[in-house]
Amino acid sequence: MSIGIIILAAGTSSRMGQSKQLLKIGNVSLLKHATQQALGASSHVTVVLGANANEHEVELRATPIQIAVNTQWQKGIGSSIKTGIKSILSVSPHIDGVLIMLCDQPKVTTAYLNTMIKTFGDSHGAIVVSRYEGTLGVPAIFSNEHFHDLLGLEDASGAKSVIMRYPNDVSAIDSPEAATDLDTPEDYSQFIATLK
Fold first, then answer.
1. Integer Cα distance of 114 and 18 in angstroms
2. Pick among 3.30.9.10, 3.90.550.10, 3.40.1130.10, 3.90.1170.50: CATH of 3-195
3. Residue pair 111/134 in contact by the 8 Å Cβ criterion
4. Gap between the Cα atoms of 135 and 130, Å rounded
5. Secondary structure (DSSP) of 133-176
6. What is the pTM for the complete model shown?
7. All residues at 6 or more sequence positions from 39 whose CB lies less than 8 Å from its CB, including other chains
8. pLDDT digit string, tens, across residues 78-99
């Protein structure tokens, strides 16, 4: 079974007031941290960049990943998902599924991603999602039968719209790790305080 991972990292981090992708966790950036966790679970990793793409690309230099730049990143997360799917299919056209994750969920680890991939293989379900704070979301794995749905997303729509469209295809994993996402300076400060 071949699972590719798409890391969405194209946003402008407007609520953070600076590039969240480059914020440090210990001695690595959020972007590099997410990439390291993904590479522990798959050899097919695509990072979708957009705002500040040149700066972020430097951060990923010498990392064995594929970079896809979404020049239309301002249109929304759906445009970045479509960019990532097209990019990963260009090098791995027969892939069984894709795992979509964000670069700003720092508690998501290789171990958790591997649990998701194992659940995907064991359940024979078409979609495996993370369940946290009363919702279903990413990280999430979509089988190749749902690639056309992802490629058909409205630019401003996220993967959740596909999850909600096919409830009978969904297997959910409780994931308190995924509940931590860093959108504001307060989020970042609170997270760093937990590491001390």
1. 31
2. 3.90.550.10
3. no
4. 8
5. TTEEEEEEEEEGGGHHHHHT--TT--THHHHHH-GGGEEEEE-G
6. 0.95
7. 45, 63, 64, 65
8. 999 999 999 999 999 999 999 9
